[in-house]
Amino acid sequence: MNRFDHVMVMVSIVIGLGVTQLLTDFSTLIINHHQIRQYVPHTVWAIFAFALLIQFWWAIWLYYDIPDQQWNYVDYIIVLLAATFLYLVSELVLPKVSNEPIVEIDFKEYFGTVSFYLFSCLSSYLMLVIILRKRVRKISFDHRSNVIRYVALICSIIGIMISIIDFHNELMDMILALIGLFIMTIFLWYFNPYRL
């Protein structure tokens, strides 16, 4: 077992816990749908959290060709912390629903109470990914592939500082547009016949 395999085992466990948490919360919310006052931006954030977990797990596989000598304990901790912050996002993004028949959950109110922590975890994750790419892949901080990460990081930091729910709706639109741009960039890069 090489060092990358060791890193992937731990990351897979943490990411698996996050996916399990989100799917469990989703299924509980579906079962208890009569207790929920829906708030669409919050639901989109939950779906976004699921996509981030899967994307991070997939992206870490791109590090398989890094030689063992290049991996060290600090890199291992950075990868594990990034996965941990994503787990925390998955834990925070959906409320815990009890089976008591009287309790009603307002997603808008819940989002207002956890948005500071949610955006803090998201910002921490983005910073760690940028640092990891610099340390392990030797990709400079000013590389063009980090632009979308920086914009998402700035949006997340603004989300921490501003607790106005209406602003978070606009922020969600901006981050979703960034994700679309990121996916389109990857798609164009992957299908570019002139890339080496």
Radius of gyration: 18 Å
What helical percentage do the residues reach? over 70%
Number of strands: 2
Number of domains: 1
Cα(first) to Cα(last) distance is: 31 Å
Instruction: Estimate the global geometry from the Cα principal axes.
Output: globular
Q: What do the pLDDT scores average to?
A: 82
Uncertain spans, ≥5 residues at pLDDT below 50?
none
Reading side by side through the largest sheet, how are the strands ordered? Answer: 1-2
Quaternary state of this entry equals single chain
Helix-strand sequence: HEHHEHHH
Helix/strand/pairing category: mainly alpha
Largest sheet: 2 strands, parallel
Number of DSSP helices? Answer: 6
**What share of the residues does DSSP label as strand, in percent?**
under 5%
Structure description:
This protein has 6 helices and 2 strands. The chain is mostly helical. The chain has one domain. The protein has a two-stranded parallel ribbon with strand order 1-2. Helix 1 runs parallel beside helix 3 and helix 4 packs antiparallel against helix 5.
